[in-house]
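Proteins fold reproducibly. Next comes an illustrative record:
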Amino acid sequence: MSRLTIRIESFPKFATLPVGTDVSFKAHIENPEAIPEGTVFRWVCVNDPSTIPWYAPARAIGPWGVEWNSAEWTIPGRHTIVFTAHFKDGTRQRVAMPQRVDHAASILKQTFDASANDHDPTPSQQLQHIKTYLETLQHIATERPPINQEQREEHEEKVGQLTSYIHHLEDHMSGLHNLEGWAVDAMHIDKNTATRTPLRLWLVNLSLPGSDEKLWRLVDWTNPVYRHTTGTYENNGDTHEEAIQDLIRTWDWNNRYPEGHIQYQFSVPKYGVDLSGDFETDGGSFWDEVSTWLDYAALGAAAVAGVVTLLAPVPGSRVVSAAIWTSIFTSTGAAAINISQRHAEGFGNWKDDAFDGLSIVGNLFAAGGMAWKVGATVTSATKLGTGMQRAVLIGQVSTDGMQGILLAAEHVSQYQSIMDDPRLSPDERLQKLMELLRSAAIAGAMTYISVKGTTADLDNLNNNRTLLNASQVTDPEVQIDLDTPPAQSVPVEGGQTRANIEAQTEPESLPLRQDGAQMTARQIRRAENRFVNPDTLDEAANLLEDARTRLIDGGKPLKYSDDELLDMLERDPTIRDNYIVRLMNKSHVFDRNDTVRDPNNLTGKLGGTDDLGRVKYWSTTFDQIVDSDSDPDLIRRSVGMGDQYFDPNEKWVMVLIDRKKHEAANIGTSIVPTYDNLTQFALRQAGHDPAKEALIREVMTERYSREYLHFKNMADKVVGKDANNKDIPAYNLKVSKRLDDFLVTTFGDDIKGTELFKARFEIENSYGAYKEYAGNGLTMSLHNRGPIPQSQNYGVKETFTYEISPKTLQDMLKVDMIKIIDLKSLPEKAK
């Protein structure tokens, strides 16, 4: 009897589903002809033994057949759905599918990213984008009208949707455009479908200057067209925080979201407000009214996508613009050309340049003879930016400059096809053009050009009979090779200047980044100018005193912003500081077995020793921590030390470590523990074991870090208290028997899953990369709720030191390798 090929599908399909979700399963048998006569099928759910209550069954018996509909998850845990084929001869074939289930609030806490919408448009920007989208759509309909009744109805429906969206959002934002506003981070998870949806919320300060009453309004514009996904809420209070707290309660009571859960974070640093939390939603009639939760995304997602992907000029455009202008319009006579690109720094200011995908498409269909046209073909081995050696100019040359795009030659036929296809409706044409531009931009196959000259420049060029004139640049038959200098067209008489060319461009720009910081050149220089690197231990101590004065005068404990920190790590994930800083409990300056504790003989080391006598510790550098002063609470919040590890009643010290002396003495190695750096370090310790090396590479990733956090949370779950009132975890993984129990319960016969977890757990034990380790080389800031609030995600650049030959603190003091500073809290009034 041949084996059946069975595949289980589930709906909804998510890695983790919330408790209460109704789910359906279906078994697809790819070779039904192989099913023996008399075969029957049965479903069973094997519940997670570590989470089910004592009274619940270990298994939930499902129905007979190939479908299991309307099953409801009621218990969190890592459960297993088993589909069994029972054959007539008594044999069986099983197929299993794991399914994680958790409470909605827990899922949102893991999924919720408070920085996810940092670069989203504001409601006012979105309103302008949608208006531009509608205007562009109508331009296309004028130039390429719908060809039949179906297309006309589709176009009218789309125009109606966009018009309604604009009307409702304008109504919500009436009188608010010029007031202070902040984006609110929030996400909804639907109980029935497990769909996670980021919400669009705008918090506006309506308080009158000088008024004792603080007034705030919350605008929910997730989709202003549907009453269940929009609304405005308003509350006042004696303080900004009190007004916003009451506003959150009003939003909780009056929102109409479907049954589920909302996680939120209201952060208004200017007024010292940082409120986060969650609440349940119960809008029961939502699904009767809206066919799909994501309808709102269709009402302008294309406009937003165009803005996000094409907002900034593509890397290389700055150089290309100057190269094209000089190559095409350079006179070999006495012409003087002044070229100036309108870019302040980096990639330039998009609010000034304002050429996104919609703007480009709009120019392709502009009225009054201003539409961009296909022009000359431009070739170069090096000057067209990444991904292009042959491109076509699509744009317009005017009396004082040139605007357009260079599109890689391999995309031009697709462009022409979209422009000429009579079967496309206006919206389809717009969508296809924007997708083409988006794809080309991502691949480096499109460059936006914006060059300004003067009428006098062009007249001068024409008078000197340049190699190419404006009409030739827009001629599709003309080919321009940027690598070949133009031939001399006018004899140069004695004493004349052959060409006087001035090209003004900003310093080389940084590449676009999808998930890191987006820093301009000026911002980078500003951060660099704040870098301090003292030459002596005494100089470092004096700088700490300066920091205290700044904090007392109203300064902040974190020196660098999130963007600056991310940029530092991306450009240079190494340590260039002279001094590393270690925060230590003062009791640790002595070895635990030292009963004498002579203050002139500090027997402790910079960290605890492992079984091999080696020391490891995670810390930071002097430049990163200097603004936190010598206040132990501020320092520990900067390095991400949680409350469970910090006792404010204990005495603390800061150890300044001379990194160069430390390395010269061959005591150990210090790195910035990014995924790459810590992976390479762990590989060097692996002893050339290929299997172990492969596991290390696989677990030291962002993807597996999320899985490891989930598994470790399962093991660390508190199930009671011991005699000393300390938490008892579900599994103490440092006890080998409990580790084995956890692996069997969690992974069963999943050998690969077991090996991955063991490899990552070994890294945690060996190097201190705990379950919270994020791999970006930064600590998580705990200043959001600290004595001097500072709202940002990251604290400082992190360091990891591994000492193979550790020395006592006294030995290092003798050679001026370290300086120990007693930490002292700031005066209360300074906080």
User: Anything to note?
Assistant: Confidence is low (pLDDT under 50) at residues 284-355, 453-468, 486-517.
